[in-house]
Amino acid sequence: MHALDNLIWRALTTRQQEFAEGTGLARRFQREVTSLSAFSEPSDDGYKSLADLIGARGTAAVFLDRPYKDRNGWEVIGGAPLLEMVCENGHEHSSSSRNGEPPEILDLGAGDSPEMVQLAALTKPGPFGTRTHELGTYLGIRMDGKLVAMAGERLKVPGYTEVSAVCTHPEHAGKGHARLLMQEVMRRIRLRGEVPFLHVREDNGRAIALYENLGFRTRAFVHYVVLRSIAEE
Q1: 225: helix, coil or strand?
Q2: Shortest CA distance to 89 belongs to which of 214, 219, 218, 220?
Q3: What does DSSP say about strands 146-157 and 138-143: parallel, antiparallel, or unpaired?
Q4: Looking at the whole model, is its pTM more than 0.85?
């Protein structure tokens, strides 16, 4: 198996087990952190363990290797096909801005959480909760005191850290903020001797072009599915 196979499960049972809830064949992140959940394998027993963990009408966001097939006791309420991209080359790109002097990059934390959640809700980079910032480094750019762009770290497994929540307020798009923030997040990941990776919607051509320019290459296709546990008929 590759280190990124069954990624969420591996994160919850290795580097990020402090955020894990659940026993047996299923785990989930604490709800304030993120809605991501996993099972040791997508078997009947795995789905049953996940249903027991989240409870009736509970929701779970999972990564699957193959498209989800309907099964009793579950309904799909969201999701999208994703590319999983890895940056193995370790090449450093120089930071730049399309408007001359680059803006200041700020470390974000608990005090910034409300604005981070608001920006994520507006731009929809993926699940983002009030404690998502606890998963790793989060960086941002402010303009006139307002948070207009951010990027950070989410899933972590031995040797790899995910670049996540890359988003820019629509009024400030096209200024190179995402690139600038990603470069710094990636630099810090590499300083720890780790490899950056990320996930992106398969239909997000603009973002994919940016990531390829930064050295990311597609490793796998992932099916992101948000499920709700329902009573079996």
Answers
A1: strand
A2: 214
A3: antiparallel
A4: yes
- Eight-state DSSP code of residue 104: P
Please give the full DSSP string across 25-36, using - where no structure is assigned.
Answer: TEEEE-TTT--B
Q: How does pLDDT run across 169-199, given as a tens digit for each residue?
A: 999 999 999 999 999 999 999 999 999 999 9
Identity of residue 5 = D
- Three-state secondary-structure class, residue 211: helix
Q: By the 8 A CB rule, do 139 and 131 touch? A: no
Q: Give the whole-angstrom CA distance, residue 88 versus residue 121.
A: 31
Q: Is 72 helix (H, G, I), strand (E, B) or coil?
A: coil
> Which residues, other chains included, contact 145 with Cβ-Cβ below 8 Å and sequence gap of 6+?
none
Superfamily per CATH, domain 85-220: Gcn5-related N-acetyltransferase (GNAT) (3.40.630.30)
